[in-house]
Amino acid sequence: MTKIIIRAIPDKRVEYVEYLERFIPDAVMCYDQTRNAMDTFLSGMRMAEGLPAVHMEDDVILTKGFREKLEAAIEEKPDTLIQFFSMRKKDHTEGSRLDRSFTMNQCHYHPAGYSEAIADFYDIWPGKEEHPTGYDLLIRDWLKSRREPYWIHCPNLVDHRVCKS
Description:
Helix content is 33%, strand content 20%.
């Protein structure tokens, strides 16, 4: 089973964490330690330890049969970064597809080594001053630096809760 790392705010979202732990008991929690979203994101990336990993935020709602659907989607494209939450018009007209403009960080899969490579890219990322919490932009720019598309999986496997991110 693919490692799942959930970035969480323990004292603010206890019920969200409990919900995810109930449905994904093997998930690893990456708790915000510094009140800095980018620090928490980078810590989560490093927690992958070179393995393939799914990264999630704690404010998601899982689709029914989430784990089975997730593993099936990864099995189809194990060497491609996959996004499992999107809000684009093409999701309804074209469905699953390759894309080159990564956005939204609710739930995505990274092949082996990608998570650490993205964390390392942060050190040279020109957008860090302008976008201090733009970790989706960090991923987008890392993919662009490699001239690599990513896969948008439709339908979404998670939904985003109506709350402050």
